[in-house]
Amino acid sequence: MSANVTQEGNGFDLLFHTNTESGKTDDLKTHPSINIGFINNSGEWASISGHASIETDRSVVKKHYSPALKAWIGDLGDGKHDGGPEDPRIGIIRVKASTVTYAVSNSTTLGSFVELAKGVATGQPPNVNKLRELTEAEISQWKGQ
């Protein structure tokens, strides 16, 4: 799966490039319920639950194609499987988010260390992130805007 991520549906549908000849596409056809996690260097994170589908429609693939995919897919040298936008191995994994839980940082890195030290001293959990959740109803409402 390529690291290139595109957002649709007001940001709640995530699209990933994939090699359709990999085992993950078979897995997703059988078990489309998924969870994806992201984290950044400051400790902020997101956990997205939803359902995945595989799209091979060439117009969708071309719309989101990037020349960098050639490095991920490779060129088999047969003129057809060349990593280009017409390569039948390139597909899109579309993830439709159902729920999202995420944490945003309350402070700087130094502030997080202070909170951690306070937690160690007091036995109380450190207040380093603010946890937020988006329900399925909230996501549906946002997508409809």
Automatic annotation (TrEMBL):
SUPFAM superfamilies: FMN-binding split barrel (SSF50475)
Family annotation (Pfam families): Pyrid_ox_like (PF16242)
InterPro entries: Split_barrel_FMN-bd, Stress-Dev_Protein, YdaG_split_barrel_FMN-bd
Transmembrane segments: none
Record-annotated General stress protein FMN-binding split barrel domain positions: 13-126
PANTHER family tied to this protein: PROTEIN BLI-3
Protein name: BLI-3 blue-light-inducible Bli-3 protein
Species the sequence originates in: Paraconiothyrium brasiliense
